[in-house]
Write a structure and sequence with these properties.
381 residues; Aspartate Aminotransferase, domain 2; alpha/beta; 2 domains; four-stranded antiparallel beta sheet; Aspartate Aminotransferase, domain 1
Length: 381
Amino acid sequence: MIYLDNSATSFPKPNEVYDFMINFYRQHGVNPGRTGFDAAIETGDLVTNTRKMLTKLFNGGDDYNRLTFSYNATDSLNMIIQGLAEKGAHVITTMLEHNSVLRPLYSLQQKGLIDVTYVPFDERGYVDPDDVKKAIRPNTKFVVCTHCSNVIGTIQPLKEIGKICHDNGLIFVVDGSQGAGAVDLDMQAQNIDVYCFTGHKCLMGPTGIGGSYVREGITINHTRYGGTGVRSAVEGHLEEYPYRLEAGTMNLLGIAGLYAGVKWITEKGIMNIHNEEMRLWKKLRDGLREIDGVTVYCATSVENQNPVLSFNIKGSTAEKVGQFLDVDYEIACRTGLQCAPKVHMGIGTFDLHGTVRFSIGAFTTEEEIDTAIAAVKEIAE
């Protein structure tokens, strides 16, 4: 199989991740923070070290306990969006968002709690920060924006959007599903207040682990309650981090895999990985552009871009092209709306039922890109 669906989840993972998860869980598969025997303490150290590692990776701040774990980015975005929303508030988001942002906002809007503005993107696939500024109202509370589109791969101008938010007293929330581990990130320099991430994509961890970093001064109201392992006599859920956004037993195996994945990408160099992926992306883009009947969407530049490419073949549906790629060429990709319907409204593919999406990863080879280009050419012919 030629795997070109890394935007859905990175595959394969580094061998170091598989090995570390198995060995760690065999020796330390106990519940940390609930008791004081040696294995539990050592397990707790892994959790703490992973918090520290991710806080440093994101440059979140001095308090690593504000890095909290969840199931995935969707889980964290639900906690953050619902924890920030209040009746009568206005929220700004973009047409580039994934359903992990769109659906929580839609649900709150349907209940009459908030009003939402969707800022468009231009023909290249980028949001204009001035459009965010123009959308601000007196009752606007926060802005939520994707780091990078999962459909067209464009990396958004977070620093500029974040500055507008801070100049106007707004909270800036970023969906980092496609950005965490893909490109360098600096929450402080980019004016990001809350960064939500998933572990199973560019951070090279397993599925079922994610989280968020909330900068100091940002209040997220509780949306879930339960055991924390400490101060059990307190009737209400604890206010301090990390317990404020964590309840119950953590996904320890997921955290172990995430630790190993972050260690791997850090040693390799995030931008070293990115630059090689983008070299292959450019070859893929240029190759597909030369094929008669193929339309490639938005892929105008290698700058501010992740290795994600959406295209269609004239005269065929994306679903049918995906079936050909799978059955005849053993190429795995994603077809359809990719859980981001408003992006497809913006690029004119919604009525076409979406696009074919190739997404390159750290283990993609040049030979695989050559094969993919040749396959698309044969299908188009």
